[in-house]
Amino acid sequence: MPELPEVETVRAYIHQYTAGKKIMHIDVRLARLIKNADADTFIHALTGQTIEAVKRRGKYLLLQCSGSHSLLVHLRMTGSLIYVPHWQENIKAAHIIFSLQEGTLVYRDIRTLGCLWLVPPQGPTGIQGYDTLGPDGNSPACTTAYLRQALAGTQRYIKSFLLDQTKIAGLGNIYVDEALFLAHISPFRRCHTLTQEEIEHLHDAIVHVLHEGLKYGGTTIQNFVNGSGREGQNQNHLLVYGREGTPCVFCGGTIQYKKLTGRGTHYCPHCQH
DNA sequence: TAACACCTGTAA
DNA sequence: TTACAGGTGTTA
After folding, report:
1. Which pLDDT band, with edges at 50, 70 and 90, does A223 fall under?
2. Which chain C positions have some atom within 7 A of a protein CB?
3. Do A45 and A9 touch, CB atoms closer than 8 A?
4. Residues 6 or more apart in contact with residue A148 via CB below 8 angstroms
5. In angstroms, rounded to a whole number, what is the distance separating the alpha carbons of residues A71 and A10?
6. Which tens digit of pLDDT belongs to each residue from A143-175?
7. Å from the A55 CA to the B11 C1'
């Protein structure tokens, strides 16, 4: 589900509502979501700690706590982290429940593919996937020069490259399709064939689509909700994702849908080369 | 790099 | 009943 703009939207809300609050009690209802500790260890390490700040790197959320351990969360497809002033038992798919000194932080996840990790004192190193993250797609480190250098070394499909979190962190299926459409580059192009000009357009498009996603509070297709449980609005501004069979906003041709390395891919064959 | 696995819900 | 879904790790 969530890509960088969705995770960042959640981060901002959760930070606003939970920073400075103490974790009074933790109810672990689905322990297998915690990947590197058993439930007792997890509960013992975090109970009594104060959430100092909520940070984000790529699609990971870091809840920095006052004690020696912190909490790292990846929402995967259908995870969500919401803050509610009053816990109610009718909240569906609530798997880990943090009772705070004021209000409740709930980890929900319909498909239960999400992950939580207890972060050791030395930080979130050694946690699979985290150490090898590339620069965030909207960070100053993700320059055109960086992209040029990284793209030159591989012949894979550009879409597959953009989805690779070790190359660029934070992009997922929606924003990759949107960025390639805006840059007029086919998802089937091989990385090493991109020209300097195309790489510049691609870079601008990545920054733009992430900015738009953030501006509209994330994209909700089915499940995404921000930290308050509300939907995003960026789905109303998408240009290709989910628009197969409808007219291309540039040429009026028909948006196509094909599978590319297992992912549904939306593009305009006339505009994207 | 492809297929499959992890899961559940929804829509065709 | 089947295919598909904002992701990613493992295996062939």
Report:
1. confident
2. 4-10
3. no
4. A196, A199
5. 15
6. 999 999 999 989 999 999 999 999 999 999 999
7. 36
